[in-house]
Amino acid sequence: MGKLAQMMTARRGRGRLHWTDVFSYVYLAFGVVLMFGPVVWLVLSSFKTPAGLVEFPPTFLPLSQIEVEVEGHRKPLPLYRTTLEDGTVRDLAQIRRIGIVSQMVDPENPDQTYKVPIDQREEIREFRLALENYSDPLERFNFLKYLSNSVIVTVVATAVTLLINSMAAYGLAIYQFRGRNAIMVFVIGTLLIPITVILVPVYLVVTQLGMINSLWAVILPGAATPTGVFLLRQYMLTIPKDLIEAARMDKASEWQIYSRVVLPLATPAIAVLAIFSIMWRWNDFLWPLIVLNRSEVYTLQVGLNAFQGELDVQWHYILAMTVVTLIPVTLVFAFLQRFITTGIANAGMK
Amino acid sequence: MTEIRLKEVKKAYGPVEVIHGIDLTVASGEFCVFVGPSGCGKSTLLRIIAGLEGITSGAVEIDGAVVNDIPASERGLAMVFQSYALYPHMSVYKNMAFGLENSKMPRSEIDARVTRAAEMLQLGDYLHRKPKALSGGQRQRVAIGRAIVRDPKAFLFDEPLSNLDAELRVAMRKELAALHASIGGTMIYVTHDQVEAMTLADKIVVLQSGRIEQVGTPLDLYNRPCNAFVAGFIGSPRMNIIEARAEAAPDGLILSGAGFRIPIPAVDGLAPGDACSFGIRPEHLDMTDGDPDLSATVTLTEQLGGETYLYCDGDGLPQITLHRPGQLAVQAGQQVALRIDRSQMHVFDANGDTLANGVGA
């Protein structure tokens, strides 16, 4: 807490606020609003009712109208602050609305009804979280199935990505051979090709392999990433050659050098790639949408799309489920960022 | 016990040949030191023996078997690297056990061997530390321990002491000598420090530019260097080597040069008129009251108490170093008359090859 306070009040010198302090704080505050504003708005909106979402002007907090039980009426009635003809202001419940006139009842005295023009009444609202936005999809939609599909895709794909990318990086970093740099340039070069260009050919390959509508169709095509190979290879280049040779003298096989010496030393780079891979896979939408056509294999992102009909978009569900899908990546990041330390692997040298 | 033999070993990187045909036998149980200036190929030669570098032609034999095509891991040798190359993510124990685990040794045997090596190297208390938490000397011991536990056919050391400070280096040098005495394996040791070479070696191999200049015991090289390079390289401070020309004299020759005429007995292979050079070690020069061989001016004195070094300049001469036991009452700027001990004088021909190690009786 002390550290946080220190950080929040840090300034350039010891004396008065310098203009660069003011500038820095304004700039940083702008950054915070820019980054966190949409997330905060998303979270708050996810707790609004459908009516609250389309309201104009929008409210900041999720509010909803108070409803009261009134004797003689089966459903709870919405409560309004009403200005009566004689100028008195009363809290009345609305029974029904006919044109521009609404029929009101006093909850305290259910026998007495009033007829009030609708512009003479104002909704009474309270802060209320529309938790049904979260509970409904969990019950009515196949949310858990989508979630487990997403988790399987993310975990398996990340594991496969880390394994094959680190093996490729090992080969390109540790071994000296003719054409090593040419291969590396070739690998990096594939970054220039956008996924939309290879969408159709990859789809054809996946179809031929009979993987359509299986999670493998999502996992395998993107498992080898040039970014990952590049990232890991550059990091592995910094591992001292002596360590590899020492392992060779220690009768280690190539597999043992890879798994017991190089991989543990490349942990920081692996952690970075793991975070990237998890984010890519979890948020991936286009490719799963193309290769997954049956709802039991949908991932979360594709599942969310189901709330978006041609004529009707169920924003409250979409927003709520978006918040849910954000949680795992956030947790993963919070956990893995500890491993992203820049400590280079030469602590055992010299 | 292992004998290592190199036959006509050549190594080229592309068109550049760096090792020009080395023939060498390292006898079983021998402590052999490769010494030479940096870039002379001594480390390359060691890595060739280790199997970390291939060779262009020739043969490397271990116990009579040609191992040219056998990878480093199968040669049964252990190497201690200049940088130690400890695995930073493993504890000291794991570092030492790694090689044994790779050869699928039973747990109990690994444990026994690591414990024994740790005891020998006084590492018992540090077995569970990471290399990061060790001092330079301790890391060095772990690196040696990692080699010992393997019980290798031979130990290869690549400048293992060069990262230590002077005091620790002397201490580790003694430990290495003791280690060789106790386990007695064949050891090949690379260094550019001729003091390490002199103190540790049974046999010294002096290398220059990828060629062997001379092989011999330390005192052999000291007393009978085969050329001016070896003469200059072995011994500290280095030998004074002075250019001269031979002239005829009634009873032998006179070596003459800038400001000196030194009569010597006849030397085989040196005829009057030949260009030559002669060398005399700092400890074999003395000041004299009589007829001087050389005269020079003292520019610097180093009084160490037990011994004294004088650095002298003379007209047309290279700097001449003088090393005498005891304390000398000599000041900088003083003229000194120097006498050369003929029996310790080395004479080289124009190419630098030795004509005589000690002239006269």
Structural category of chain B is alpha+beta
What helical percentage do the residues of chain A reach?
40-55%
Task: Assign the CATH class of the largest domain in chain A.
Answer: Mainly Alpha
Q: N-to-C terminal Cα separation of chain B, in Å?
A: 43 Å
Task: List low-pLDDT spans of chain A.
Answer: 343-350
Biggest interface and its residues per chain?
A-B, 23 and 31 residues
Shape, principal axes of CA atoms of chain B: elongated
Secondary-structure element series of chain B: EEEHEEEHHHEHEHEEHHEEEEEEEEEEE
3D shape of chain A? elongated
Specify the biggest β-sheet of chain B.
6 strands, mixed
CATH superfamily of the largest domain in chain A: MetI-like
- In the CATH scheme, the class of the largest domain in chain B would be Alpha Beta
The CATH topology assignment of the largest domain in chain A is MetI-like fold
Q: Indicate how many domains the architecture of chain A comprises.
A: 3
Mean pLDDT of chain A: 86
Can you walk me through this structure?
The complex is a heterodimer of chains A (350) and B (361). With 350 residues, chain A is α+β, with helices and mostly antiparallel strands. Chain A folds into 3 domains: 15-45; 63-127, SH3 type barrels; 134-339, MetI-like fold, CATH 1.10.3720.10. Chain A is 55% helix and 12% strand. Chain A has 15 helices and 8 strands. Chain A has helices at 2-8, 19-45, 50-54, 132-140, 143-174, 180-189, 195-208, 216-219, 226-237, 241-249, 254-265, 267-283, 286-291, 300-305, 315-336; strands at residues 63-65, 67-68, 77-83, 89-98, 101-106, 109-117, 121-123, 125-127. In chain A, α4 packs across α15 (315-336), α5 (143-174) runs antiparallel to α12 (267-283) and α12 runs antiparallel to α15. The two termini of chain A are 40 Å apart. Chain B is α+β, with helices and mostly antiparallel strands and 361 residues long. Chain B has 2 domains: 4-232, P-loop containing nucleotide triphosphate hydrolases (Rossmann fold, 3-Layer(aba) Sandwich); 238-357, OB fold (Dihydrolipoamide Acetyltransferase, E2P) (Beta Barrel), CATH 2.40.50.140. In chain B, 24% of the residues lie in helices and 35% in strands. Chain B has helices spanning 42-50, 92-102, 107-120, 136-149, 166-183, 194-200, 218-223, 228-233, and strands at 4-13, 16-26, 31-35, 57-62, 65-66, 77-80, 154-158, 186-191, 203-208, 211-216, 240-249, 252-257, 260-264, 275-280, 285-287, 294-303, 307-313, 320-325, 335-340, 346-349, 354-357. In chain B, strands 6-7-8-3-9-10 form a 6-stranded mixed sheet, with helices on both faces. In chain B, strands 13-12-11-14-20-21 form a 6-stranded antiparallel sheet. A 5-stranded antiparallel sheet of chain B has the order 15-19-16-17-18, with no helix packed on it. In chain B, α3 crosses α4. Chain B starts with a strand and ends with a strand. The model of chain B has no long low-confidence stretch (mean pLDDT 90). Classes of the chains: A alpha+beta (350), B alpha+beta (361). Chains A and B meet through α10 and α11 of A and β6, α2 and α4 of B.
